[in-house]
Design goal:
two-stranded antiparallel ribbon; 6 strands; Glutaredoxin
Length: about 425
């Protein structure tokens, strides 16, 4: 089957490609992305602040090419995805990414009085989402694209986001199996990091009975989950590794979601967030286990000698809601307001919504998982706990959480988890 818009493009497997893109989800995102592009074009065309920029006409032309080549006719785009090895399509995706980058740079160069307007901020965030849509269909290759260098302006800084968009999975990557309960908890940041970084992994959900069996068999290094089983590319026996923070840093480096250059102070920003969240979770121990101590590292039981009565659990819940969580949210807000560890100072901080500006890291994923679980957005992380009001008082934190939640790859992951649970629920109902 051929398309009139691209008569030389034949679709060998359209349905298979749609499965990869989670059915119609990508099509919906593509329609939304096209609306963002229209808003961006209208804003740039009508703004005096943009008219004074020498690159304005080139930016307008570039965004029009993104619409024509990707978002305006999403079904034709799916056909091109099926032929992802095409050099022409690879060049088109590289050009689209460069055009979006140029538009974001145009906004960045504009006066602050224009750049900080809510409408401009919304359009800039929309362009980041357009980039996510392009990322999902771009060829996954490290091959140099002929002519791409001439089409793309030199980047101001190396961007980890772009590295993930163009790099193919390394065939030497180990085979990873992540085992945890069928809940978000301590494993969800690592699951999201692997998903965002396009690192293949096996997501195994276990029951408490499974945990007890694995513990008795010596397959849990520290007697608890999550556990990451690593097997090299040659197929060796899997080696289990424990501790959620160690797992997250490891997969974060694999996924290019953790600053890894020696002396990069952004490591301190990322690690500070992770340690703060670890401190915040410790306050949940009395609420989770109705105990002053966590579960025993030997058999997983809650020690009877330190059990708490209802009055003490209620008092702990009030303190967590009224003092601990608001303080932690405010501390994150202050970090996001600071430029500590960011090369480029305020410009780097304001380039994007994340802990490290425009580059998403494991810290952003951890913040999203934690605060989604203690606000109206998700809930259920800890019964009786609600930090919704605390987050509303922290605009930078809220912007970060929204940015992560609205990433197409995160949305697709959440949708796939919901679908899997619904399928399992229906199957259980039918068998019952």
């Amino acid at each position: 089957m051929a398309y009139a818009g691209d008569p030389d493009v034949i679709d060998p497997d359209p349905e298979g490609k749609r499965v990869f893109l989670q059915g119609n989800t990508w099509l919906d995102h593509c329609v939304e992305a096209d609306e963002f592009l229209i808003r961006a074009l209208e804003l740039i065309e009508s703004s005096d602040a943009c008219a004074a920029d020498a690159s304005r006409d080139a930016v307008l032309s570039g965004l029009e090419r993104v619409r024509a080549g990707v978002t305006k006719r999403p079904h034709e785009t799916l056909v091109k995805v099926a032929n992802g090895g095409s050099v022409a399509w690879a060049r088109q995706c590289a050009d689209a990414d460069a055009a979006i980058e140029s538009a974001l740079d145009l906004f960045e160069r504009a006066p602050a009085s224009f750049r900080d307007r809510p409408a401009v901020v919304a359009v800039a965030e929309g362009l980041h989402r357009v980039r996510g849509v392009v990322t999902r269909v771009a060829p996954r290759t490290t091959a140099r694209i002929p002519g791409a260098e001439a089409a793309s302006p030199p980047a101001k800084v190396a961007r980890t986001e772009r590295a993930r968009e163009t790099d193919a999975p390394d065939p030497k990557l180990p085979h990873l199996t992540l085992k945890y309960l069928d809940t978000k908890g301590l494993a969800e940041p690592a699951r999201l990091a692997l998903t965002v970084g396009r690192i293949p992994f096996e997501d195994v959900r276990v029951s408490y009975e499974d945990v007890a069996r694995l513990r008795a068999a010596g397959e849990l290094p520290f007697g608890q989950v999550p556990v990451l089983e690593v097997r090299d590319a040659e197929g060796s026996a899997p080696t289990p590794f424990g501790q959620s923070s160690a797992i997250l840093r490891f997969v974060g480096r694999l996924a290019n979601l953790y600053p890894s250059d020696p002396g990069d102070l952004r490591q301190l920003r990322v690690d500070a967030v992770e340690e703060l969240l670890a401190d915040a979770r410790r306050a949940f121990v009395p609420l989770w286990y109705r105990n002053a101590l966590p579960r025993s590292p030997t058999d997983g039981s809650a020690p009877e000698a330190t059990a708490l009565d209802d009055a003490r659990v209620a008092a702990a819940t009030r303190l967590v809601n009224d003092t601990y969580l608001p303080a932690r949210a405010a501390q994150v807000e202050r970090l996001l307001e600071s430029t500590a560890g960011l090369p480029g100072g305020e410009a780097a901080r304001d380039a994007g919504p994340y802990v490290c500006g425009d580059e998403v890291t494991v810290a952003d994923l951890s913040l999203y998982v934690f605060f989604e679980g203690v606000t109206d957005a998700g809930g259920g992380y800890c019964p009786g706990v609600d930090a919704t009001d605390a987050v509303e008082r922290c605009p930078r934190l809220k912007r970060l959480l929204d940015a992560v939640a609205n990433r197409p790859d995160v949305e697709a992951w959440n949708a796939s988890v919901r679908e899997r649970r619904e399928t399992a629920k229906k199957a259980a109902t039918t068998s019952g």
